[in-house]
Amino acid sequence: MRIVFMGTPAFAVASLEAVLAAGHAVELVVTQPDRPKGRKKTLTPPPVKEAALLRGLPVEQPERLRGSETAARIAELKPDLIVTAAYGQILPKAVLDVPRLGCINVHGSLLPKYRGGAPIQRAIMGGETKTGVTIMYMAEGLDTGDMISVAELPITDKDTSGTLFEKLTETGAKLLAETLPSIEAGTVQAIPQNHDEATYAPNLTRDDERIDWNRPARAIYDQVRGLSPMAGGFTLWNGEPFKIWGCTIEKRSASAAPGTVLAVSGEGIVVQTGEDALLLTLIQPSGKKAMPAADWLLGARLAPGSVFGSGGEA
Q1: Which segments are annotated as binding site?
Q2: pLDDT of 206-253, one tens digit each?
Q3: Arithmetic mean of pLDDT over the chain
Q4: Binding-site residue positions for (6S)-5,6,7,8-tetrahydrofolate
Q5: Are residues 171 and 245 in the same domain?
Q6: Residue 40 clears pLDDT 90, i.e. is over it
Q7: Which domain holds residue 260?
Q8: What gap in Å lies between CA 238 and CA 301, rounded to an integer?
Q9: Does 41 map to a domain?
Q10: Is 307 within the bounds of a domain?
């Protein structure tokens, strides 16, 4: 098949490689523009662009696909199929209508749950015990199209967004490779989504990283796992952001207010939550690098009774 591939992050690279490995002709790769990254705001190409250029594929990076020269270019190419994977924009109808075999998307959730841009992080943060990849036909709505194929994976208590991204990246590429032959042959029997069961996974914001100590330890633990290793959760200490990258649940009850430090030890910092407590093991004080909590405690003035939270007063 003659294919236009559209994707942006590392999650999409394996799917691009799966299309090429299956022998299809990728005539154009469309990805997001280069963005500033890091403290120095260095202009950095998305992983899909880097992968495409290494393979000698033409790349276009419209800021907005609708009405762009890239959209016109796709219409000129008249591909058999458009394949998208975490592209980052909703395709306009003018593009959806171009390929004779339609447009398909590799989505990192079990649709109709977690439609949107952050399904992997949101599934962990939502306390889910399973997730997966859905390959679907694209429609004008947000991840609303009919489902073609599904692969399911468990979410373990040790998973973070980082480990789950790796698992779903591999699963998505494998499922795509298995699905393409039926699309090419025209034998797909797609299943409509049950829109009444739909949930959404919007892109993460700074507020999603803020820890509310009134929540149960389990919910905060899931929040931190879902944010790692990309952003991490944060609280306040002495009025400054204090990031938490790693923690474990401690089954204990205390009369202290949520956010109160219950104990400090060589293992880390035990903090009261709305239900049970959390042992903070990997932290990042303001202006410092991430470090084991035990290392920070060697020089920090932190004692039981101190409080994390709004203002972080001891």
Answers
A1: 109-112
A2: 999 999 999 999 999 999 999 999 999 999 998 899 999 999 999 987
A3: 94
A4: 109-112
A5: no
A6: no
A7: 206-297
A8: 11
A9: yes
A10: no
